[in-house]
Write a structure and sequence with these properties.
- It contains eleven helices and no strands.
- By secondary structure, the chain is mainly α.
- The protein has two domains: 94 residues, no CATH class; 110 residues.
């Protein structure tokens, strides 16, 4: 907790930005982690957001929006947003701006871009903008498919990033199921490139996290197979 407090106070920005960051670390990240730790919300994001502006503003945006939501201050009337929601949106816009500028100059690391996509999905899902969340999710899947990996990055991708993208993808089934067959097929094809373990499923799992990953992979495999078969059987549904 002392380490969290030091990072929260030493990050650049206003008092409101430090508050949003601290709320994310102490309240939002534990809820996103749930019962299973992956190292993403509680370690990786905490470390990298302290030095990467796009990630830092995303974290602040999610923390501020979560605080508004938890205190039931979010207004549903368009154009009548509370100060906290407006602040969160401003931070979200800054995060996207930093990411776009870094991508334009070629200075953005693919791993940071992947992490930004995850945070954007989280933010848009929290405010109910599921169409936009799906766009960010699919962007992340494409980056994951095309990125060049080094041994150190490959370990993070295989053990932390890919499983998280797999979870987000499986959780999006209910949303994608309402879209056109072409959209479902395209999404299923993109999921093919999310990493899967080689070999057979073990008879016994060493950890709950390992069991959960195999469960997610099995659910994802069934999901992709279902939509691929639907496309072959009903091509006119395009």
């Amino acid at each position: 907790m002392a380490l969290i407090q030091r990072i929260s106070t030493r990050i650049p920005g206003s008092a409101q930005e430090k508050r949003g960051f601290h709320y994310f670390v102490t309240e939002t990240a534990p809820e996103l982690t749930g019962f299973y730790t992956t190292g993403f919300w509680e370690h990786l994001i905490l470390q990298t957001s302290a030095v990467e502006p796009s990630l830092r503003h995303s974290v602040i945006a999610i923390g501020a929006l979560h605080e508004e939501f938890s205190q039931r201050r979010i207004e549903q009337i368009p154009g009548n947003e509370s100060e906290g929601v407006a602040f969160a949106m401003n931070q979200y816009t800054k995060a996207i701006g930093h990411l776009r500028r870094s991508l334009a100059t070629g200075k953005q690391k693919p791993l940071t871009a992947l992490m930004s996509c995850i945070l954007f999905v989280c933010f848009d899902s929290l405010r109910g903008y599921f169409e936009s969340a799906m766009v960010h999710l699919q962007s992340g899947l494409r980056i994951l498919r095309d990125m060049t990996r080094t041994p150190d990055v490959d370990y993070i991708v295989e053990t932390i990033i890919s499983p998280l993208f797999l979870r987000l993808s499986v959780q999006s089934i209910l949303y994608i199921d309402t879209r056109r067959s072409r959209d479902r097929h395209a999404f299923a094809s993109e999921l093919t490139h999310v990493c899967h373990r080689d070999g057979e499923m073990p008879k016994m799992f060493e950890t709950l996290e390992e069991a959960r990953r195999y469960l997610m992979e099995a659910a994802d495999g069934l999901f992709r197979m279902f939509y691929m078969l639907v496309m072959r059987i009903s091509p006119r549904s395009l």
